[in-house]
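As a warm-up, study this chain.
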Amino acid sequence: VNKLERASELDHDDTRGLFYLGSCLELASRETGRADYFDAAVAAFERLLRIDPQDAYALNYLGYMFADGGTRLDKAVELLTRAVSLDPNNSAFLDSLGWAYFRSGDVERANHFMARALTEMEVEDDQEASAADQAIIFDHAGDIAHALGDISRAVTHWTRALELAPENQDLKDKLVIEAP
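Now compare it with the structure written out below.
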């Protein structure tokens, strides 16, 4: 983080460095629970987006940060809608937008975008989405199906997620509670 902060001071327009800085700070926030790291990550991504407002990956990252944290959900939907408009077939972007709608309480709209994410994930090259990314998408799809009362579909999605992320205790707990 210190080296990336120093690099961003030396080159104010280095969007790649800002992306790495923001993502490192967000990870540090997740690992430590420190809000100041989260705030610094937001600042890095906002600075990047002032330089390049069409950076779909930065839009997605920042929007997902807000959605996953359950904060600034209107802003999350705005950012993620922009990311999806720039890359409408990106399963990760569709998942993020679906997750933002879910966290906002709009489960029907969340389900629409999650269905699109699952479809796009099937047609994307296997190299495109890592197993960890796919597991997140299946986990989100399971949560949305569960919220819609479709327990069978939820269990199917969570089972697939657990196959991709076998050490994920949250998934194991969901399956213990809901498995028939």
